[in-house]
Amino acid sequence: MTQATQSFKDGFLWGGAVAANQLEGAFNEGGKGLSTADVSPNGIMHPPNFELGEHNLYHQGIDFYSKYKEDIALFAEMGFKAFRFSIAWTRIFPNGDEQTPNEEGLQFYDDVIAELHKHDIEPVITISHYEMPLGLVKNYGGWKNRQVVDFYERFANVLLDRYHDKVKYWMTFNEININLHAPFTGAGLYVENGEVSEQDIYQSIHHQFVASAKAVSYGHELRSDIQIGCMIASMITYPYSSKPEDMQKAMQQDRNTLFFSDVQARGYYPSYVKAMLEQKGITLQMEQDDEAILQAGTVDYIGFSYYMSFVATTDEELLKDSTGGNLLTGVKNPYLKATDWGWQIDPIGLRTVCNQLYDRYQKPLFIVENGMGAVDKLEDGDVVNDDYRIDYLRAHIEQMALAVRDGVDLIGYTSWGPIDLVSASTAELKKRYGYIYVDRDSEGNGSNRRIKKKSFDWYKRVIASNGQNL
Ligand code: BGP
């Protein structure tokens, strides 16, 4: 155990983060419609089948739908101050285009929120996390269709109307920049046997920006102290060498991420994006009020996930040897170790990202995902010795403390998957992040029992000491 030198502020939001389709299960209960995740047997980063296949782990998740009370009690035992979760759009609007919401779906989230409050845990809602109603993909073509902005608006407004006085912290879209890398996941863009066009990708992104800004503005109308953030997957890129060309490439690569927070935090398209779109021959269809909508609906804080850093090089030989994991590939950083899935572990990169984002926007930061996916071994006597996870998290929290000392305004930390859940990129239950082990395998076999890992008590101490006892 080490002592961090710097305290986090009072009320710091320690906790964990999950997404509906990765843990709820009950995919066809309570009036729920089919979502893109329900037909993505290979993981939600991959194009789906359009029909319901037989086995898909997202159908079962870890059955949070019926076990949420037990799970939330465990989070409370760890001392969680906040719990980030997403709303399954298809529980509320089964096909996406209905006029009225499904009351039974809302009731489930009423219950989850009430349970969190019972334990003094602040609910943090992601309105849309890597899924959408399959109906909006099949019948409207996903987010490239402007009408989807209206459907999202209806969905978001129902949630904001119902929960604004119960929930202070919100995010509009999970990892919105991943649209560039996995357009099906975020934007519902899918072309059978073909590439999705860049025109459609950027048009879909524009529609999400407009939809997000509308939700922010509506939230502000309802509650003056509401906090609605963007959520980007931070992907800091280092130049492989001090060669100016490498630096230039790293900067360009980072702009693929910063583009998103720039628009959502500043309220307009930066000149480098306008130039890039022009060079690509892409013309965005904008409605007359869009610029004003973006300007009015800037976010209150910058939410982001952080798992790893990336490296850019112009060296052709090095490029051949690229790795970087199952989510995105990149060049190997010779100074870093990687997880079993090739995600390069870089705690100092988190301090750098915090400084970079705070310098750029001067808005509070909220680290809403971080963690280490690993294969855990359940030993006799219900023991899981996940020291590697503790080491990973400790090293990252130490760097967060240094970022705070640098002057960064950091409001919270919700590590990813506090309870084991289905992986987004692999659709398995092999890659685990939790403090709580779930006895279920990738085929869906197992007792589904919840078992505390070694990291459970460790995180409890971290929270109880407000990040001092690491
Ligand atoms: C983020 C997603 C999450 C989550 C996490 C870990 O990109 O927002 O949904 O799954 O990554 O990824 P994986 O599950 O692939 O290990």
What is the average of the pLDDT values? 94
Q: In this structure, how is the largest beta sheet organized?
A: 8 strands, parallel, barrel
Count the DSSP helices. Answer: 16
Highest CATH level, the class: Alpha Beta
Number of strands: 14
Domain count, please report it: 1
What is the 3D form? globular
Spell out the blueprint of helices and strands:
Layout: E1 13-17, H1 20-23, H2 57-60, H3 64-78, E2 82-86, H4 89-92, H5 103-118, E3 122-128, H6 134-140, H7 147-163, E4 169-173, H8 183-187, H9 198-222, E5 227-233, E6 237-239, H10 244-266, H11 271-280, H12 290-296, E7 301-305, E8 310-312, H13 316-320, E9 322-323, E10 330-331, H14 347-361, E11 365-369, H15 387-405, E12 410-416, E13 436-438, E14 450-452, H16 454-464
Parallel strand pairs: 1-2, 1-12, 2-3, 3-4, 4-5, 5-7, 6-8, 7-11, 11-12
Antiparallel strand pairs: 9-10, 13-14
This protein binds 6-O-phosphono-beta-D-galactopyranose.
Keywords: Glycosidase, Hydrolase
GO biological process, one term: carbohydrate catabolic process
Organism: Paenalkalicoccus suaedae
